[in-house]
Amino acid sequence: MTPQRLEQIFDQARTRRLLVIGDLMLDEFVWGKVGRISPEAPVPVVEVTGESFYPGGAANVARNLREFTQGVTVLGAVGNDASGKRLRGLLAEEKIELLSPVELPDFQTIVKTRIIARHQQVVRVDREQVSGLSEQQTGKVAAAVREKLADVDAIIFEDYGKGFIDAGLVSDIARAAAAAGKIVTADPNPRNPIDWKNLTAVKPNRSEAFLAAGITQGDSDAPPEKDPDLRKAGDALLKKWDAQQILITLGEHGMMLFQAGQSPHHIPTKARQVFDVSGAGDTAIALFTLALSAGATPIEAAEIANHASAVVVAKLGTATVTRDELMASFRDDES
């Protein structure tokens, strides 16, 4: 892709409006240093030097989008607790709209705490509860999205398997969005088997793809473009979900894009250094969907998502990628 074409896509992206639906979280990072082992147990003692908080989960997808466009909205459950208030404040600071937040009785905002010492994650502590929506709440959420449809160009379902997204909600929204000609994508979760019909694209990782396709995942050493099981899984998901595209992320092997009636397209990884894979999937679905909404072809969108993921895994924490960083990544690839 030429720099001129990339700039054209980014310029179009500035005017795009996207809605992210899914499990909202608060990401907490506790930074410190390790100087000794605890006398109480064979574990390191982390001397805390600072703390950082970021929007996490589906909110991190929105945060990645916000680097490229001002029109970003999220929809999910937020607790009426201190963490929920902090999350609302962070979203407001980044000018990300929170659409009709769902407050469940006694719901505690999901918090993921990562303790980092010397640029390495020592341990992660999750405070969460899986809590689904009632039929009445699902109806209200779907109604809020239908009312918002005229003001969005694309919708992303970000499913972390925490209960906010269910089959009924997806079916209702996807059907309405498809009828309105909107781009709809999903980042699925293996713990929540959903029939992702009426979607533009679905982005599972390799293990999720094999599980959803009902195919045993082998230990193939073949490159992705010559892996028959991978091709079988991608083709099966195209038929199962009747999607226009299936984008399977392959970690250090990049991504494989499947489109109906076309040969699979492999995009090798662009990562030169891997510090932290936290949030790489969020970045991939965010940039893939944004690029599609800005007029990119599916292959162009996959290439942009691949470069974006390569940039964020070289950073520590649930990071985002900027326009300048993406441009530089493409330039480096040409050199």
Count of β-strands: 13
Taken in chain order, the helices and strands follow as HEEEHEHEEEHEHEEHHEEEHHH
Query: Beta-strand level of the residues, as a percent range?
Result: 15-25%
* Class derived from helix and strand content: alpha/beta
Major β-sheet strand ordering: 5-4-1-8-9-10-11-12-13
Rounded mean pLDDT score: 91
Helix content bin: 25-40%
Task: Point out poorly predicted stretches.
Answer: none
The major sheet is characterized as: 9 strands, mixed
Total count of helical runs of at least 4 residues: 10
Q: At CATH's second level, what is the architecture?
A: 3-Layer(aba) Sandwich
Gap between N and C termini: 13 Å
Q: What is the CATH class?
A: Alpha Beta
**CATH fold title:** UDP-N-acetylmuramoyl-L-alanine:D-glutamate ligase
What spatial form do the alpha-carbon principal axes imply?
globular
The oligomeric status of these chains comes to: single chain
Would you identify the CATH H-level superfamily? Ribokinase
Considering the chains and any ligands shown, give keywords for the structure.
335 residues; single chain; UDP-N-acetylmuramoyl-L-alanine:D-glutamate ligase; alpha/beta
